[in-house]
Hints:
Blueprint: E1 6-12, H1 16-27, E2 35-40, H2 45-57, E3 62-66, H3 74-84, E4 89-94, E5 97-99, H4 103-110, E6 116-118, E7 121-124, H5 139-144, E8 148-149, H6 151-154, E9 161-165, E10 175-179, H7 180-185, H8 199-210, E11 214-218, E12 223-226, H9 236-249
Parallel strand pairs: 1-2, 1-4, 2-3, 6-11, 7-12
Antiparallel strand pairs: 4-10, 5-12, 6-10, 7-8, 9-11
Amino acid sequence: MIHPSISLIISTYDRPGALTKVLAGVAGQVVQPLEVMLADDGSAGLTRSVVDKLTRELPLSLRHLWHKNLGFRKTIILNEAIQQARGEYIVLLDGDCVPHRKFIRDHQELAESGYWVQGRRSFLTEQFSPSFQPLRNRFMTCWLRARASGLFKGIRWPWPIVYRNQTQRGIVGCNMGVWREDLILINGFDEEYEGWGLEDSDLGNRLYNLGRPRKFVYGRAIVHHLNHRETSRTELSANHDRLQATLESGRVRCQSGLSTHQPIS
């Protein structure tokens, strides 16, 4: 089986400490992606300093895409990254989710034409997250010491458990694998979503409408979420209404999406 080339896109905003741990986890992968792209939704200068330092220190092909902070505009910078990506397959990861060392290899092996992949996430407590050391702290040990939750989602089992479905449960953009050509067909993320929430559910449902069910996976492609204070959810009601419109209309493409960005030459 020929595995696809992977562009790993990590979304981030003003959490340089967490991003440092995530990139350490990426650097320790048993299989490296073709490229690592940081989709930065307007972080302040400290994040840039951290990224510059890590670019020199870590063995990664790292690109930092940034736009001005004008509020929550994650969908825009994600589309910019997708449009510039060189890989056949896009893996989306949040900048507060540390990947298991076999994360990229698992996504390569799970990639299948006609499907997208929804990986799961476990959770490290807010108190423990600052001291968590990727590639050194074992998740099971953290769980036994009450420093983590989501045991079934945080362990790489001897075999994966895969459900092929089109349900709403568990659509999260923090751990998702999608063929780049499918993202182009649906025009990427809908940039009319403003504020936190449900932009990833909209993407997943438009993939369903395209005829791309998901592989909902346990025991592979694992990430550990570094818990923190919740982001403001002031726009969630409006975003819910927009998602409902997608569900009712069955639309595939969004109007404001990838096509507004210039592809790489």
